[in-house]
């Protein structure tokens, strides 16, 4: 028992040390550390402020909520919009007053209350087989049409990216229509939803299906991967709904933590993340579309051509988030 | 049993149990809140399928790993054949491999688009999936096979210890009465090992219940999927807590049924264990069969995935090398070492109290302590955060009241939270392996030592501990390796700037490129090997 006590005390002593060293910024991130570290390193280089990242896939909002006013979190980075909304809903963020950020980010990609900001955008694309389908002008609605019977592949309907897509369908077409649509898509699937977005492209290459749904940046990342390049080369990337409302957009984003201990530096970091340098890095490293209008996407991404984006404000997706999951359950999309 | 235990021992037992149950209690309180009809919606749509899948998976994996593990344990413990000495620890290797990695490798390999089917299509000139039959990889059956391959070492280890600890008197008696090896296995060794096997199957079932990553590779939604959906999708921690409660109930009723079935069985033995000479010398043909069984098992559960990982690592070396690997390894190692030490120490106390106390409440306390294992990691992590942040606030408020500056997040901001969560989750493993060892110590030893005027402390130190050594080693080993691999709790609870091997691998896995994390995954396996070999040797020597 005595040894046990010593171990615990030792542990406690170690922590107090780390807890009291105050100055560096703390970022809680839903995005993988290796994605954001290069950008944060650049920030440290420019300002001399160190940044620590804690990456977790789930549960960051709960952790911040429990930590309350003692939370060391300064900035939260999310990989999709629904997590941003969750932070806002749980009252874990505080508004930022920064003209620089407001100038960098177009109004439709930030909260009117200044409590969250999008950093990057990605399109939910439709991939099509070069060999069997060719480049197509397709609407999301068409995925339910008879002509694609047994030809579509997708990952789990419950993945945040698919949930967001369904939420946007509800926002545009209403719940009843979306339910029929989902049933139609399900009936068209070549196999039960599985794997990740890249797997669907591989499935097209191997001839299991002709059409797949996937995020834009994976197409770029596959192109950069020596083993996966041939997968990507087997498909075209198509921007859906170009003749009408535009392609569905999801965003990654950031927010200032409500009890951020280092607010000033935190805002500096947030400003940096919207700057040309950081936005350019997001574009190059992760193949996403920068939100800042005058920062160009990477050459590869730009080569896919311009497209029309759905102008639906991001918060509209949040309103339909739960309804989307309910529908996916009701039609038993994944089963 | 027979000892009027001093109150203080009981109290220590209650205290340990209470602390270990704190996260669970936090969740139960959460489960009693109203949840805005999420639960009934689930029940009317997908929940029945999820429950059915969960039950099916637990039974298949429990049964599957039992069937796989039993022959291996028997060969190693009771037979002599070439390579036996190596196989006894080689068979533990699959444990060092995180299940989700094995799942990734196999789904990747055997999928329609994977190399195996691609090669078949090229060879036979098939064009479409309709041209030939291949079992669906992403299915409940294949998920069960892969989980069994990864989890069978639990049962193997406990069964092997049980077989080795069985007194040779029984064996000699059975020989005298004309039992061949087969009969003596079915009639004697197997029934005597049943408590150990039950513990092993229960552990495997709980691990299966809590698994999320592996089943999601196989696209098999289970109750855990529902827990995640309700919590992260519907934003209802309450409904998630309710589902967790159902899951615990399922697991405990399964364990309960088994216990009830053998309530009248008692088995104790005095020393005189198996010796080398008691092993069956296998004839060449049989020895070859035993050899190939063990070898085949290791090949598919460990070697093949490991080789695939290595090819990833070589292919993507520049992307995956990280000069902080040494630091990550040290972090993994020291957390695992502390956790396994604490778990075994606590488990010894709990099991001792259970053994010597006549009080029912003492018995219950130690059983309840195992509950944490069946909870999915992230859910457990939330449960851990609740009481610990209360403690943090209490300390800070107290300090503020005295006019001093508080220490900040003393518990949740440090490795304490991590270690605590791991202990809650893995004490079940330590308890399980001690339980099966304790079952074999005859109570007459306790009586004798009390008659000789020994205090409970002396009984524990002088009589029980030496006899429990093997169980303690086994438990420590299992807890150690699990702690090396444990992921969701580590991700969420780790202090700022803390990274270990598992968290490092995961960020790549979650970005759809395990290939880049392959090197770290290999390091997990290699680092896990060190204690594995060391402890196996201790097991051997303590015979």
TrEMBL record, chain A:
- InterPro entries tied to this protein: Ferric-bd
Q: Which UniProt keywords apply?
A: Signal
**Is Signal found in the keyword set?**
yes
Cross-referenced Gene3D superfamilies, in alphabetical order?
A: Periplasmic binding protein-like II (3.40.190.10)
Q: What is the annotated signal peptide range for this record?
A: 1-21
Q: Which domain of life is it from?
A: Bacteria
Q: Do you know which PANTHER family this protein is assigned to? A: IRON-UTILIZATION PERIPLASMIC PROTEIN, THIAMINE-BINDING PERIPLASMIC PROTEIN-RELATED
- Family statement: Belongs to the bacterial solute-binding protein 1 family.
This protein's name: Fe(3+) ABC transporter substrate-binding protein
From TrEMBL, chain B:
Q: Which domain of life is it from?
A: Bacteria
Question: Could you tell me which PROSITE patterns the record lists for this protein?
Answer: ABC_TM1
Q: Which CDD domains match?
A: TM_PBP2 (cd06261)
Looking at the record, the residues that make up the ABC transmembrane type-1 domain are 51-256, 329-535
Keywords assigned by UniProt? Answer: Cell membrane, Membrane, Transmembrane, Transmembrane helix, Transport
Q: How does it sit in the membrane?
A: Multi-pass membrane protein
Q: Which residues cross the membrane?
A: 55-77, 89-107, 136-159, 196-219, 231-257, 288-314, 334-353, 373-390, 410-434, 516-535
UniProt KW Cell inner membrane keyword: no
Q: Which InterPro entries match?
A: MetI-like, MetI-like_sf
The entry's localization annotation reads:
Cell membrane
Q: Which family does it belong to?
A: Belongs to the binding-protein-dependent transport system permease family.
**Under which name does UniProt file this protein?**
Iron ABC transporter permease
Question: Which species does the entry assign this protein to?
Answer: Shewanella metallivivens
